[in-house]
Amino acid sequence: MTDATTEAPAATGFDALKGMGTEAEAPVAVQKLDAQGRAYSTGKRKNAIARVWVKRGSGKITVNGKDLNAYFARPVLQMMVAQPLTVSDRVTQYDVVCTVEGSGLSGQAGAIRHGLSHALTHYEPELRKVLKPHGFLTRDSRVVERKKYGRAKARRSFQFSKR
């Protein structure tokens, strides 16, 4: 009796998947840095677009060439920008340089937070598990609704006149 006659044909399609365990091996995350040792990412919110670079440093955040406190006067916006660093306990470990344009200050702060979160995951891939539950890696897709033809604004109708 030979082994060739007792062998079953190779499994294909879904039969091949049955033999696999329920736990698929997770892909190994790799650090993505440029030539200067910085991690880069783009963040968006409303009509604001932020380009964010993260590198090892003392915790200084620069927005459009100004200090964070000078650019965002409201403490709420300063806190919003720094949230990814505080949640991941990396406030004094990284320097952040970003340029942002479009929208208003609130949209710009949200765009920087989104970009900073992504840049942190490029620098330290294991931070994804910390930032994802807080929703920092999700792009908030809400934008202003456009004005429609035959309407006063996006949804408001013109005033009705009986006569």
Describe this protein's structure.
It is a single chain. The chain has 163 residues and is α+β, with helices and mostly antiparallel strands. It is built from six helices and five strands; from the N terminus they run H-H-E-E-E-E-H-H-E-H-H. It has helices at 3-6, 14-18, 68-71, 75-87, 105-123, 128-131, and strands at 39-45, 48-56, 61-63, 66-67, 94-101. Helix 4 (75-87) runs parallel beside helix 5 (105-123).
What are the low-pLDDT stretches, counting only 5+ consecutive residues below 50? none
Looking across the biggest beta sheet, what order are the strands in? 1-2-5-3-4
Average predicted confidence as pLDDT: 88
Q: What is the chain-wise order of helices and strands?
A: HHEEEEHHEHH
Any idea what the shape is?
A: globular
Helix percent band: 25-40%
What's the total helix number?
6
Q: How would a textbook summarize the main sheet? A: 5 strands, mixed
Query: What is the gyration radius calculated from CA atoms?
Result: 25 Å
Secondary structure class reads alpha+beta
What percent strand?
Answer: 15-25%
Q: In angstroms, what separates the terminal alpha carbons?
A: 101 Å
Question: What does the secondary structure layout of this molecule look like, with pairings?
Answer:
Elements: H1 3-6, H2 14-18, E1 39-45, E2 48-56, E3 61-63, E4 66-67, H3 68-71, H4 75-87, E5 94-101, H5 105-123, H6 128-131
Helix pairs in contact: 4-5
